[in-house]
Amino acid sequence: MKIAYYPGCVAQESGKELDMATRFVCRTLGIELVEFPNFSCCGSGFVDEANEVLNIAINARNLAIAERAGLDVLTICSTCQGMLTLANVRLKDPKVKARVDGALRPLGIEYRETVKVKHLLRVLTEDIGLDAVRAKVRRPLTGLKVGAFYGCHLLRPADEMNWESGEEPHAFEDLLSAVGASPVYYRGRVMCCGFPIQFVKPETAATIAGRQVLDAKAHGADAMATPCPLCHISLDAYQNQAAKAVQQPLDMPVFHLPQVVGLAFGATPEELGLSRHLVPTDAALQKIAVAPG
Questions:
Q1: Is the overall model pTM greater than 0.85, yes or no?
Q2: pLDDT, tens digit (0-9, with 9 covering 90-100), for 256-269
Q3: What ranges in the chain are assigned the alpha helix state H?
Q4: Distance in angstroms between the alpha carbons of the first and the last residue of the chain
């Protein structure tokens, strides 16, 4: 499988471990990642709030770059996936398309709307398939109870994302089962992580994140895993603040989706960048007899 790789911003800087894990998993499965250094930020949280049409144009440009190469786009960020997908949806409005085409024309860019945007979770569960994933498992995650945390943008708005239910999804849990882990079901798995208001109302954001971690913990999770680097920031990097906000210790390891798969494929903690997490993953690794890196 050959696909245009759209890592997004976080995975290239503060969340480099997400990129490391993604590359390991894709190499193992024979997925060829084609890189385009001229991809730009998806604009979420900044451009989209200031100028929706400009944000659609930015993402149409990204999609046009992949289109020229005849490739669909792989994202590893739920927020990027949301912005790129919504650009495809919004361009169906003739008025929006005319304005976007007008913005791209001086750049010599035309987007014909042929590119599909696929999050890594969907690529693994649908394009590659769970049987193929299962066949690559070298270290089954037997005994590790993992609470998937979908967050907001992977599933919603459901009518525009056109994938799983925003309330009762199962793809992530299916993937966890395929690599030998025990999925934990809890209400918070489809709730917000608090990141969108992290820099506006940090105490509220911390409370939201803390409640989701407590929910997973109450249902027996040894660890959480998320397909979104922004959710990972809220749940891992800001977990100390979350613990203070809910006035309870949390101590919950939080993995990126490809790190969980990478562990099952036999990767070392060093290859997956686990030492970069703020909440140690040692307790979770001990469950599957992996020495911390």
A1: yes
A2: 999 999 999 999 99
A3: 16-29, 47-50, 52-68, 78-90, 94-104, 120-122, 130-135, 158-161, 171-178, 202-218, 229-232, 239-246, 257-264, 282-287
A4: 31
